[in-house]
Write a structure and sequence with these properties.
The chain has helices spanning 13-22, 34-43, 61-69, 88-96, 109-118, and strands at 5-9, 27-31, 49-53, 79-84, 101-105. By secondary structure, the protein is an alpha/beta fold. A five-stranded parallel β-sheet has the order 2-1-3-4-5, sandwiched between helices. The protein starts with a strand and ends with a helix. The structure holds magnesium ion (MG).
Length: 119
């Protein structure tokens, strides 16, 4: 069986490295802002889940999420927002925009794995 594919969207290289270690059983596709993530979605039709940062250059996580939810080909892909603590408004707006779940930074590895497995 092919490993499930996760699109990681975050401008922090450290987060990408962390996810590489933590999510070894998944196949990861990397993007560093919303625009790059949209390009990746177009190229990898079989993305199973998206892990999404909010604050990023060029296109923010919320803008990206709105575009995903407005596109019939992508709207069913579950999106998990990885939010920085103290940015509750972003989280609420993200859930309103159709995110399936949110995880606060700093997060526990177990918490992240559970949310991913559930979705
Ligand atoms: Mg960021």
């Amino acid at each position: 069986m092919q490993p499930r594919k996760i699109l990681v969207v975050d401008d922090s290289k450290l987060i990408h490295k962390m996810f590489e270690v933590l999510l070894r059983q998944y196949s990861l596709v990397h993007a560093y802002d919303g625009l790059e993530a949209l390009e990746n979605l177009g190229r990898h039709a079989e993305i199973d889940l998206i892990l999404l940062d909010i604050n990023m250059p060029r296109m923010s996580g919320l803008e990206f999420l709105n575009q995903v939810k407005a596109n019939a080909s992508f709207e069913a892909i579950p999106v998990v927002i990885i939010s920085t603590e103290g940015k509750e408004e972003d989280t609420i707006r993200g859930l309103e925009a159709g995110a399936a779940a949110y995880i606060k930074k700093p997060f526990g590895n177990q918490e992240l794995l559970e949310v991913i497995q559930r979705l």
